Amino acid sequence: MKLVRYGAKGAEKPGVIDHDGKVRDLSQVVGDIAGDALVTDQLERLKQLNLADLPLVEGTPQQDLRLGACVGNVGKFICIGLNYADHAAEAGLDLPKEPVIFSKWTSAISGPDDDVEIPRWSEKTDWEVELGIIIGTGGRYIVEEDAMDHVAGYCVINDVSERDAQLNRGGTWDKGKGHDTHGPLGPWLVTRDEIADPNNLPLWLEIDGTRLQNGNTSKMVFDVPTLVAYCSQFMSLQPGDVISTGTPPGVGMGLKPQRFLQGGEVMRLSVEGLGVQTQNVVRA
User: Fold this and answer.
1) Is 238 helix (H, G, I), strand (E, B) or coil?
2) Best exposed site among 51, 184, 244, 281 by fewest CB in 10 Å?
């Protein structure tokens, strides 16, 4: 299934993409694509629905029908740093011996095609296409052998980053990661059963039609089950939590010369099987 949240900002409704690429309304079935609606037995219940019986929503998603973030009421937005060896090399940083964990504030979450803002003071706003893991059944102290049982599905994430605040202004990476609009999620949550191998998915990002990132999740240092199990050793994972798994090379910080967003650009990014995001870059 491809689950979506559609409609105006702050008033999104739950939906599912049908076989014709249209949105069917799920409001009479679930309150939101969030929390306990994502646990295994609830997803199985949704899979049994006859989509043709659900109300058809007018408009074409991502054209004249806005999609919001594909998960609502996210409790934790967990990110993994330096999870591609070639990205660590371009950043001039050592390859981690264990996953690097940091957070994006949930107020950074936005729709897949909403504008991305450059902070008023920023000169180093950067892009990062990433595979997102959406937690379904929660847990803690999860072992790797059971980790996939806790995954509801996957989505595309743009881990937009302000590099000066992240690296040069004291404190942790979080300072440069959580600006409003710097966490687009979607366009849809693709349930786990539709992705045969999340550890072998091409992913890419373009700025104004020029492809700058072109990678594959097979190059991740720590794979999906490892990340789920590892994170659960330090916090309880709960339904609807998001884990962003790191980015391949080609970010602005790693280019020679470095290149950062100025405003007026169009970003397009995708992970195979998970849809495409398109964002206009604007000044806050």
Assistant:
1) coil
2) 51
